[in-house]
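Re: weekly structure request thread

Next one in the queue (306 aa):
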Amino acid sequence: MALDPLIPYIPTERLVLTLVPEGALGGGFPPIPIAIQPFGVLVAVGVYLGAYLAVRQARRVGLDEKRMGSFITWVVGLGFIIGHVLEVLFYRPRELVEDPLVVLRVWDGLSSFAGFIGGVVGAFVWRARSGQRVLPYADVLASALPVGWVFGRMGCSVAHDHPGLESDAWFAVQFPNGGRYDLGLYEMVLTIPLAVAFLLLRRRRRPWGFFIATMALYYAPVRFALDFLRVGDARYFALTPAQWLSIVLVVVGVGFLWHLMHRSSPDEDDSLVLAAAGPVRGLGAPPRGSPSQRRAARRAARAARS
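Done, posted below.
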């Protein structure tokens, strides 16, 4: 005997605080109601927490805080804009043909993988403007991203904007029209272990690229599997755009992993990166050497004292 879905559907429409109704200012402006919604609040909290943790980690590892803040602005800003444009192009091509202006309504839809692509574009625009290396700043941001991602997907779960296939499984959500998988909820739950692990792993210095590789190899198979439960998405050769990009993400993760395993001189590489980052307030000491170098220094110090 199958169990009924045990997760209740919690409507959030009553929690919306409308500040300016649609068209209230005349001439059809604003085009949508200006309101405080649970989804928007949770996404904003996620962005803030992710940015805060990234800047804090940048300070800890010796990167410039202002440059880290600038990097986050470019990555997040273009991530949202390009994430919307690509979402319309790949997930709603028919709507784009019928209403080309939908591409300008950046509040109307966002794809997570398209946001990743936008973030990469933002990172290289930042590099062109600042002349700094992208990898250390990107890896620090990656170390904080899962915490923000949990809150972002929490927003998706309360908005119920990723309903999946119909199901009577116990972990399905009892939508008004019957039990369904709630993919935003599942992704939030599956991201929590990664967020906790990264918060612990950040306590020790890691080689640049470690968090990018780990996140890519963790998230890609999760997203690839969950997308088989999606309904209504455009598919290309039987896979959703996110599934194709998950394959690309695995390749990226393996590439970073290969780089980490074959670096000839990790300490020298990190020292050069930190030197290029410039002086940082409160961090005057140079990066520590390798364990063998530190042991040799301790032996020399003991010999000098004796």
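Residues 7-25+36-262 form one domain. The chain has one domain: 7-25+36-262.
Next request, please.
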